[in-house]
Amino acid sequence: MPKQNKKKRIGSRRVQRRKRQRIAFLSGLCLAAVLIIFAISYGILYKYVHKVKDGTIASHIFIGETEVSGMTSKKALSAVEAKLSEYEALTLTMKVGDETAEATLGELGISAKDVDKLVEEAVAYGKKGSVWKRYHALRQLKDGKKVIKPVFTLDQEAATAIVDERAKSLEKGAVNASVSYQNGSFVITDEENGRTIDTEAALKTIAKYLNEKWDYKNAVVTLKEVEEEAAIKRTDLESIQEELGSYSTEAGSGNRVTNLQRAAELLNGTVIMPGEEFSVEQATLPYSEENGYVDGGAYENGEVVQSIAGGICQVSTTLYNAVLYAELEVTERSPHSIIVTYVDPSRDAAIAEGIKDFKFKNNYDTPILIEGYIDSNNQLGFYIYGKDTRPEGHSVEYESETLEKMEYTKKFVEDTESSLGTLNNEGTAINGRTARLWKIVYENGEEVSRDVINNSTYKPTEMRIKVGTATDNAEAANLVKTAIASQDEAAINEAIAQAKALINESQ
């Protein structure tokens, strides 16, 4: 190989080595510059993201409409809760059709879910992740703001009560068809369909508005109505054409008649659909002056006392007998504690609020109508109308049978305020008894069955007889006191006679 060519190759390698060295040197310089720039930038960013102290909220951060910038978690929580308290005074107008009802947000029980977690989120903003991520989050706040949206809720019990009381009163619900017996014929009034509010749906609508559209001011929310069909239609009532059963009792006199009249009014015109159970107690409540009742005579602990709606049991009893003749299904019936005078034993049906009720079921395939009244002859009566599907020639009668009688008792008590020998009765003397009621079925005048449909027990009363022992003669008084302790009526009468004789002898 020529010597000259060899020298050229050696020179070329040297040049290439020098180029590589220069490149390496320059690369090192660049890397060093980059590292220096990175270090400087990191330092700047680190300082930037640590401008906000731990436990302090960055600038331009809101929870709802409450700015919490620069606050500690404690101060932010207090600020948000104070704002929530202010919201309670704001008014929410509920629009139903063309009408409105109002309630404060406080009445609806407004609150925000997990407020403490909202505050934690505000404090943590810009403090998690890499320096670059934190810088990017905080840099966004320079020209804008971060809003952490609370989730508002309502107190379901309180809000339900408000909607039911105020908004639902504005709805125009369906009106059932009705029927009455007038001048020998049945008159039907047509049904009217209506619109009603679904309370659960209304609460969801209000909550959705508060969380999606509310501007933290007084608000108006339109509540959606749903169509409601009448439960009872004209076509349902056209089958009512015949009397199924009836019964009447003497109404008596005094305030008691007012109570009988009021309860009969409440029951009059009632339509009971096939298979439906009817409660006389629920239909005649509440037993109060506001509902038209007055003080009237009633039984209590074996005595006649005055009480609001006294006499209501005569209404249920009279209806019970009409139900028996209509042969409806009796599902609940109780006798009185002591015997009543307006019907035979076992033909009564007592009512005691929350304790005793008279219930029956329409076991016909068509609706029935109850008509209640007090007529010009002072008779409390009930008619039950419907479609009579019983065989022609079918009839029923009811017979009361007394099984045992129990005499009322007497209890003699000393009366130190009345003169010796004076007798004053307290309470009512009523005998007790056990009885049963028979249902007798006739077909074309022939008895075909006889069944017991109830058994009743009536307690005898205890009549208190106060015996006077007031006298200056101690011996005479002791004679009577000793006889009272024996509870022997004959001995008491004899002791009174002896005591009076002693007093006469001493005068």
Automatic annotation (TrEMBL):
Domain G5 stretches: 392-471
Keywords, ordered alphabetically: Membrane, Signal, Transmembrane, Transmembrane helix
Residue stretches spanning the membrane: 23-45
Pfam families recorded: G5 (PF07501), PG_binding_4 (PF12229), VanW (PF04294)
SMART domains assigned: G5 (SM01208)
InterPro entries documented for this protein: G5_dom (IPR011098), Glycopeptide_resist_protein (IPR052913), Vancomycin_resist_VanW (IPR007391), YoaR-like_PG-bd (IPR022029)
Descriptive protein name: VanW family protein
Organism: Bariatricus massiliensis
